[in-house]
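I hope you will forgive my troubling you with a question about protein structure. I am sending you one protein, given as its amino acid sequence and as whole-number tokens for its backbone shapes. Thank you for your consideration; the sequence and its tokens are set out here:
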Amino acid sequence: MTIKRKIAMLLLCVFQWTGLSANENASILLYHHVSHDTPPSTTITPEKFSQHMAYLHENHKVISLDELVNNLIKRQPFPDNAVAITFDDGFRNIKENAHPILKKYGFPYTIFINPSEVGVGPSHLDWEELKQLSADGVLIANHYWDHRHLLQNARQPGWLAETRQHILDTEAAIKQHIGHSPGFLAYPFGEFNADVKGLLKELDIIGFAQHSGAAGFVSDLQEIPRYPAAGIYSNLATLKTKLKSLAMPVTSISINDPVFYQPPGLTYQMQIDTSDFNPALFSCYFNGDKIATEWQGNQVSISADKILKPGRSRVNCTAPSKTHSGRYYWHSQPWFVATAEGNWLD
């Protein structure tokens, strides 16, 4: 671990929530395909993507992901309304359809790639194309060696050692072909467990997930949230609110690991600094339904009469800020549940 990040980790241990500045927060957008003929759930059309970028140009400051991470580590204020742009999987339509729009506005962005899929088939960028994009200012980062479910064999001996090696092999491949790697990893499918997070921390790698929420000084550096902005999440009207969100000032949470091999009930507790919002206006939702919350001091219990089904799901909680009109604190808790056979759903 570098000296800079060792100091940052020490600061994370001793830091107490002392400020409510909106400049302690930034949003990260997550895209996959920019196309007309790719899977709808992970696709945004070039026309709608252009609308997103035009809105960012008029209303936000787009920063690079490495600047965002540097500010988180050093606890340096962000520019007003800061946002970073990311793509997962390295599809060729990023270069064909997204890059010209992003270059028009001078927006930096990041592509997370799987080296085993680079240049395989017509849909993925090859190394030469990735080198060209890197020379044009695009950050190329780690999306694991292949696009597997990291948790598939998590209960098997040797799984963590294999995971470690695949992460290191990906870092080495990016450095070999691109010249450098920023030391960032986006979890495939957004799935992770406590062991993977611990491994990334040991390797001094920053982890990015797929559950929603703002990135802020309170964020876990191995579990930084991003807002999906394609498919059903591409509606610009709802995205505008998310782009202005603030990281929920959670000081502790009862969940050590979001992974389950038997469907659990939905319940957990959090300690939250409530100085800038009214707990009576704190609301949580699961699958679009409002669920129960109960406060005792600064601790909230969140529960629902539901058994989580196999697959990926999340609880989203929001509360309007007292001091930043029109802005909401946002918390998202992901859950990853295996099937009865111990498999993971796409």
